[in-house]
Amino acid sequence: MGRTTLVFTEQKDGRLRNVSFESLTAAARIAEGGEVAAVLFGTVQGGQVEELGKYGANRVYAVACDELKQYSPDAYKQAMLQVIKRVNPDAIVLGHTGIGKDVAPRIAARLGLGLITDCTDVQSSGGDLIFVRPIFAGKAFQKKKFVDQKLFVTIRPNNIQPEENDGSPEVIPLDVEIRNLRSTVKEVVQRTASGIDLSEAKVVVSGGRGVKSSEGFKPLQELADVLGGTIGASRGACDAGYCDYALQIGQTGKVVTPELYIACGISGAIQHLAGMSQSKLIVAINKDPEAPIFQVADYGIVGDLFEVVPKLTEAFKKVLLEKR
Fold this sequence. Notes:
- Helices cover 28% and strands 24% of the residues.
- It has helices spanning 18-31, 48-54, 73-87, 98-111, 218-227, 235-239, 270-276, 305-323, and strands at residues 5-8, 11-12, 15-16, 36-41, 59-63, 91-95, 116-119, 121-125, 128-135, 140-144, 151-155, 170-173, 203-207, 230-233, 260-264, 281-286, 299-302.
- A hairpin with a 4-residue loop joins β9 and β10.
- This is Electron transfer flavoprotein subunit alpha.
- FAD binds at residues 209, 234-235, 248-252, 265-272, 286.
């Protein structure tokens, strides 16, 4: 028969986040021929419904509500519970983002559901759905399955390739009632200049204590701009005051899985490796040939980042210019 699978999508600045499309692809595997329904909070922007249909949504529930324009744990929890009650899906999917990590456990606890978080793959084996997730800072992978009927998972960004479909989803407006909020969002202050979300970036150029100062991030930013990526940092760089903690990657920061990760002046402490070791291609630049980062790097450059990074930037500029 297949399953009815409900995907709570996310948007930022009026654009759907890529993890929404990845979640739809995961949902299609979970549905096994059943219906895939997407939920849009806030005002539906032009083209969003078509995008969701393109990546597998058969139906789109549009929930327009002023309290949902900015993320609020109380508001989102109330809205999600009401949507789940009305749709009564067999499976629920969210992105393993700041929002998903915050609200999914609240929903699971309220509904008494099992929850498998941070999934990097969905597989079928012997009639069972198997959910793959990294453990021990990415050194091993765990395969889990549900014993109850209703499934609830979060999907790690940049791990499941979105698959396109020819869909023309039905749009169903839904009204929700939000009340007794304990807090409201008055203003969102953007603390980093880049418009690219760190957790979804295809290219990340990170700096550690080796950048020596906030000024040391300038050549890293130039390289990231040329490659169409964004910058990140180790906790050491953040603790030293070289950059904002919003850029921190690692066990106590953000987990990223870009196609290309360039580590500049980062020694490679286990806490940092926990946040980036699953990157598709890792390039390390460090003056110390014994730095642990070289053990996980696909390519290593032993040298001064202030000499190497500008040369890389110029080389990439030249290559990209020739391609045009």
